[in-house]
Amino acid sequence: MLSLPPLGSIILPLALVLRPALSDYTNANTSALHDNSQNCSCYVLNSGEDSSTPEYFSFYRFWDFRTLANGPREYITAPPLVNDTQDAGEEDVWDAHVLNSDAWNVDWSIQNWSKKATEEFPTRMVNSPANIYIQQNDDDSDPFTYLTLRTSRLEDFQSAGEIENLQKNLMHVSMRMKARVVGAKGAVAGFFTFFDDTNESDIEILTDDDTDVIRYTNQPAVDDDGNEIAEASQAPDKLPAWDEWQEHRIDWFKKNSYWYINDKQVAANTYSVPREPSGLIINMWSDGGEWSGNMSVGDSAEFQIQWIELVFNTSGPVEGPDNGYNKRSVDLLEKREEKGCEVVCKVDGTKEKGSPEVVGMASGMSVSWGLFVVVGIVSMLLGI
Ligand SMILES: *[C@@H]1O[C@H](CO)[C@@H](O)[C@H](O)[C@H]1NC(C)=O
Ligand SMILES: *[C@@H]1O[C@H](CO)[C@@H](O)[C@H](O)[C@H]1NC(C)=O
Ligand SMILES: *[C@@H]1O[C@H](CO)[C@@H](O)[C@H](O)[C@H]1NC(C)=O
Ligand SMILES: *[C@@H]1O[C@H](CO)[C@@H](O)[C@H](O)[C@H]1NC(C)=O
Ligand SMILES: *[C@@H]1O[C@H](CO)[C@@H](O)[C@H](O)[C@H]1NC(C)=O
Ligand SMILES: *[C@@H]1O[C@H](CO)[C@@H](O)[C@H](O)[C@H]1NC(C)=O
Ligand SMILES: *[C@@H]1O[C@H](CO)[C@@H](O)[C@H](O)[C@H]1NC(C)=O
Predict the structure, then answer these.
(1) Is the predicted pLDDT of residue 346 greater than 70, yes or no?
(2) Cα–Cα dist 144/384, whole Å
(3) Residues 6+ apart with CB under 8 A from 55
(4) Of 119, 219, 241, 358, whose Cβ has the fewest other Cβ atoms within 10 Å?
């Protein structure tokens, strides 16, 4: 029962570039840690083998770490490595004015868990907040900043870094980051959805690999007997080098996973596509196992991220389940409640990364998603 209203009444091309209001933080520009899309009520993008069929999502977030400095050379010096005595994960985070600000804490949690050495994973691993910090490009003519997660090898343990997004009920997502990985061999940079070990979709950059190889996996990648499951993981080569800035992307749909680098699809899988509501985890680690390899004592490696973009649906309300501890305040989430699909915005091919643009909208009508899938297509066909 899709009926299309007269075009003139529903499609209003708008070139909207919304900037968030500047916040109260004086030392750092944490306003950039918020999304730029208050006016959009749903988001459209193309994906997969049949990328002519648009996919629609209810929510959008963009965390921009590029504009955190007020000028050049503010974050040029990397903080000292964690030392031998700091093996409890109790260290403070660096750059707390950003990484312990309200703007950060509303969406991210810095991890401090650890795991013991085992026969299979012979290096004890300790996540420390001191491995998460802001760094800056050292070219004064382009002094952008970025988030860094570092891992380093001590005599007795591997110090690692991990952050988790607090949106734990992602149910299908297109998640992207602009990132690079630099440093010593024996580390893994992970960007993945996570519910449990059998509902997990990964991008993993192994510093033991050639710089044109990336691992794209749906877990589980090993069976109960510890044997590798061939179809779980793909490792294409001849990719743009991961030690330079590239845009990485996972699209998680109901039945398909797609992986992209710089807008080009490079892997696809239908094996073990996650089915449970999931979170987003980003980490930099090693444990001496087969997958990560060993890092040499004294060495370190860094996972550096300019921005993170999420286009997603949720399972249940966006503020999370009201079970006493998982519910997030809608006030903190600003105007993030679901608004239907009245103002359709595109997220790719926009003038500015992170600023979705309106491609079609309804004026004064209450409409269903189904209708707006049609409107969206019409709008796109019209090239607006
Ligand atoms: C702060 O970030 C916003 C949003 O990214 C940007 O428009 C603005 O220019 C930044 N301000 C400074 C001083 O860098
Ligand atoms: C976009 O949002 C702003 C602030 O909420 C509002 O003033 C403006 O009218 C909106 N624009 C459109 C086209 O809805
Ligand atoms: C996201 O949710 C909307 C509204 O329920 C639905 O129409 C759309 O197909 C969903 N998108 C994906 C990719 O699952
Ligand atoms: C490790 O760093 C902490 C904090 O800076 C310091 O107190 C401690 O003395 C250091 N330990 C060693 C062995 O350098
Ligand atoms: C880890 O962080 C939590 C929450 O901030 C804190 O309560 C706990 O004491 C920390 N654990 C360690 C080992 O530092
Ligand atoms: C996801 O988790 C559910 C419940 O634990 C499990 O039954 C299922 O096998 C897992 N993996 C996938 C791909 O559904
Ligand atoms: C890492 O080093 C440990 C200790 O020397 C060794 O047992 C383990 O096999 C090494 N792991 C790899 C993947 O080479």
Answers:
(1) yes
(2) 32
(3) 44, 45, 46, 47, 174, 251, 253
(4) 119
Residues 347-380 have pLDDT tens digits of 999 999 999 999 987 544 344 555 444 444 444 4
Structural domain includes residue 103: yes
Q: Which ligand is nearest to the CA of 112?
A: 5
Q: Domain holding 203: CATH number?
A: 2.60.120.200
Residue 338 is predicted with a pLDDT of 55
**Whole-number Cα distances in Å, 324 to 194, 320, 357:** 21, 10, 37
Return the best residue to mutate from 110, 112, 325 for the ligand 5 pocket (most ligand atoms within 8 A of CB).
112
274 lines ligand 6 (CB under 6 A): yes
Distance 218 CA to ligand 5 centre (A): 30
Q: What percent of the chain has pLDDT over 90?
A: 71
Centre of ligand 3 to C-alpha 55, Å, is: 7
Range of the domain at 300: 66-323
How does DSSP assign 209-245, residue by residue?
S-TT--EEEEE--B-TTS-B-GGGEE---SPPPTTS-
